[in-house]
Structures are given as structure tokens and as C-alpha cells.
Specification:
Layout (H helix, E strand, L loop, with lengths): L22 E6 L10 E4 L12 E5 L5 E6 L4 E5 L3 H4 L2 E11 L4 E10 L4 E4 L7 E10 L18 E6 L3 H40 L9
Antiparallel strand pairs: 1-2, 1-7, 3-4, 4-5, 5-8, 6-7, 6-9, 9-10
């Protein structure tokens, strides 16, 4: 993946297990049809941690889904489930949309296997408000239990974010650095003026002259 590992470990609960399997997924085509798409695999994101200023983390209301917006315009989406809930899930449906002036537009639909706990969204646009929703899909009913009512699907977890423009971020960093340098220079000038006033001006005008003895 393009999400590189940082030196510090991932907070507890987000780090994949040592024996975590690869994640199978399909990027579905646009439109109402759910079929199609090429089957792909990705390895779990191990040892990843979102660290400022190169990354900004956003969490869903339930705190079980988070999006780490990286500086290279990619987004690492991570989620976690309770062990009892994980056994009842057969797959995950990921829906991406972005907000326009008057409506929302779809950007990507992904079907992920039950073993998946993260997904990398490769390219996002600066200044666009994105919404990512992850829907756990329950196991299909056995033929003998087909007459029983289907198990309701768990509610989707959604997270919203907007990627900060890289140019604006660099301008803010530069202005902060320049502002800090100016403050340091002003402090040095003030100290220098105080030193000159105390040590050079007072001896000349504040002390009485010595009278010469006849």
C-alpha cells in the first residue's frame, strides 16, 4: 500500500493481528448493478499511525470507523468490529460520495471480504467534502431457515472529511515560520535597546562629574 508505516505503533484495537489474512475486494462499476468488478487483494496496513502534519484523522460517530487523510492525497480507511459481530458478517459494502453545490455525487463503490479491516482510497481532490459509509453485510440464511425472517443488517458507519489543499498548507507553515522568526528578532532588538539604555546612556547623563582639586 501507499500508506507507509510510521515509527510509533498503531493505537490498541486498530492494529491487525499477526496472522491477519489478505483482504479480497472488488471495485464495483458505476450504476445500479452490483455485479462485475475485478477481484483484487491487499495486505493489512501494519504499524500505521496517523501523525501530523502529514496526516489528519477523522472518526465516525460510533468511533468504529476512521479515515486517515494523508498528505499524498490518499485516504486509509480503517474499521473494527466486536468478535461476536465479526462472526455474523459475510462482507462489507463501502460507498463513497462527495458533496457538490446542490447534490451529492458517487465516487466509488467497493465490496470487501469479511476479513478486511482497512482499505486505501488512492486519490482525493483538495477542498472537496467526502463521505465514506461502510455497511456490514450479514450472513445469508441457510436453506433450512429460509422461512425465518432475515437478520437485519447492522447500521452503516459514515465518516466525512475534506482534504486540505497542499498549497494552502504550505503557505500556513511558511507564514508560521516567518512569524516566529520576526517575534524572535523583535525580542532580541528590545533586549539590545534596553542594554544600551542601561549601560551607555545612564553613565553619560545620570552621574555628576568629578570636581578637580585646586
Amino acid at each position: 500500500t501507499r500508506a507507509t508505516a510510521a515509527a510509533a505503533p498503531t493505537p490498541p484495537g486498530w492494529e491487525p493481528a499477526a496472522d491477519a489474512p489478505w483482504c479480497p475486494y472488488k471495485v464495483l462499476p458505476e450504476g445500479p448493478e452490483a455485479g462485475g468488478g475485478r477481484l483484487c487483494f491487499r495486505s493489512p496496513a501494519r504499524g500505521f499511525r496517523c501523525q501530523a502534519p502529514g496526516c489528519a484523522a477523522h472518526a465516525s460517530a460510533g468511533r468504529s470507523l476512521r479515515a486517515s487523510v494523508l498528505r499524498n492525497r490518499s485516504v486509509l480507511l480503517q474499521w473494527r468490529l466486536a468478535p461476536a459481530e465479526a462472526h455474523r458478517v459475510r462482507a462489507f459494502a463501502l460507498n463513497c460520495s462527495w458533496r457538490g453545490a446542490y447534490t451529492r455525487f458517487p465516487c466509488e463503490r467497493v465490496l470487501l471480504g469479511a476479513s478486511c479491516r482497512d482499505y486505501l482510497l488512492p486519490d482525493v481532490h483538495d477542498g472537496v467534502r467526502y463521505r465514506l459509509c461502510l455497511q456490514p453485510l450479514p450472513l445469508r440464511a441457510e436453506p433450512a431457515a429460509a422461512a425465518a425472517p432475515p437478520e437485519p443488517a447492522a447500521p452503516a458507519e459514515c465518516v466525512e472529511f475534506a482534504a486540505e489543499p497542499a498549497g494552502m498548507r504550505e503557505i500556513v507553515v511558511a507564514m508560521t515560520a516567518v512569524g516566529g522568526s520576526i517575534c524572535v528578532m523583535l525580542v532580541v532588538i528590545c533586549l539590545l535597546v534596553a542594554y544600551i539604555t542601561e549601560n551607555l546612556m545612564h553613565p553619560a547623563f545620570g552621574r555628576p562629574g568629578l570636581r578637580r582639586q585646586p
